[in-house]
Amino acid sequence: MNEEIKNLKDNNKNVERYIKVPSKNSINDNLSIESEIINSIKKGFNYSTLETNFISNSLRNFAKELFKIHMEMINIISNNNKINPYFKELSEKIETAKKDPHSFLSWLNYYKKLSEYFWIYPYDMQSEKLYTILEKVNNEKEFDNYISKYFSKEKVKELFSELEKNIPRKHKIVLKQIEIAYNSKSYVLANVGLISIIDDLLSFYIYDKGCPIRLNLFNPIIEQLKKEKTDIDEDLFLIMIANNYITNLYDNIEFNEKIEIKTNKKTRRHTCAHGKFYSNKRIDSIMLLNAIYYLLITQEILKIYKNKLFYDNKNGFYIPRKGEKKQAIERVKNSIQKKKEKKLKNNNQNMI
Fold first, then answer.
1. Residues 6+ apart with CB under 8 A from 228
2. Which of 35, 136, 137, 312 is within CB 3.0–4.6 Å of 143 for a Cys-Cys bond?
3. What are the b/e assignments for 97-132, b being 16+ CB within 10 Å?
4. Per-residue pLDDT reduced to its tens digit, 36-78
């Protein structure tokens, strides 16, 4: 994956395309951006630079918006009987890009489909193979069937070995026992252990280590990165995919109603942590192992954000502005002190 994502930029660093997302969804509004798209496509349609101020706050919708614009534009071109050679050339360029596993359009499709199928990029998979699989499947279950075959006994063993080399020391004994559980097909036990590791890896970014929240954790980091970066590089691409994955894994399931998880992979942190629902499927364990591999990579990419995130009930996770960090730290310390006092008071009452 590292090499594949890196090639997005290295192989196409001279190609740029600027897309302005229109304020309305009408076709006429989308037509206003065509000239900019056409000019860059004529240069070559591969990895692109995107003006970061057009990356929406809701990055889950980012790829959908670009696909929507692209498909509306293609429909206009395809359905226009009076199409001129200029647009015909554009159509041909786009079709060529769609068939290239390394093109920006293909990577947008990977982003969209991997988010939809509850995955981060499959470990050690070449983009050509991922492209081929996505061409063949129509839903998450079909995709999981291909991925399950890809993750052979040897591939999973290789993945465990990679994790053992890179995982924090405190998790090594847990990982070894998870591997024993996995090999004995005790996938529930493996999944619970894997989720505990994911929980801790995500706490890397949080100042208050007692904070149990993980949902939307990457949002403020992505917001800051989009202000600093002039393009969607390999790092931001991975973080965006990981962000969508964590959103699914940490989905808050309602316990007062019948638990219904509609995805093929049923593991959720919320249901596991509270003993409400478990999955005993091999594909869930592979998914979690794969996630840990990329969360370790993400942690290295984002190491400057260690302990930088704070949380409040109103705004969720945030990075304090310059001059506000001291107050944020004081609020955390006061909160911790209040919890200690409350615990001490309860203990004293129980002794009476």
1. none
2. 137
3. beeebbbbbbbbbbbbbbbbbbbbbbbbbebeebbe
4. 433 443 333 333 333 333 333 344 455 455 556 655 665 665 5
**pLDDT tens-digit map of 159-169:** 999 999 999 99
Query: Is residue 335 packed enough to be buried (19+ CB in 10 Å), middle (13-18) or exposed (0-12)?
Result: middle
What is the spatial distance between Cα 130 and Cα 47, in angstroms, rounded to a whole number?
A: 17
Q: Which residues pair with 186 in a beta bridge?
A: none
CB 318, CB 218: distance < 8 Å: no
Which candidate, 250, 212, 5, places its Cα nearest to that of 106?
A: 5
Mean confidence (pLDDT) of the chain: 78
How far is Cα 243 from Cα 199, in angstroms, rounded to an integer?
14
**Which regions in the chain score pLDDT beneath 50?**
4-60, 63, 81
- Which amino acid is residue 115, in one-letter code? S
CA nearest neighbour of 137 among 157, 119, 152: 119
For the chain, the distance separating the N- and C-terminal CA atoms, rounded to the nearest angstrom, is 60
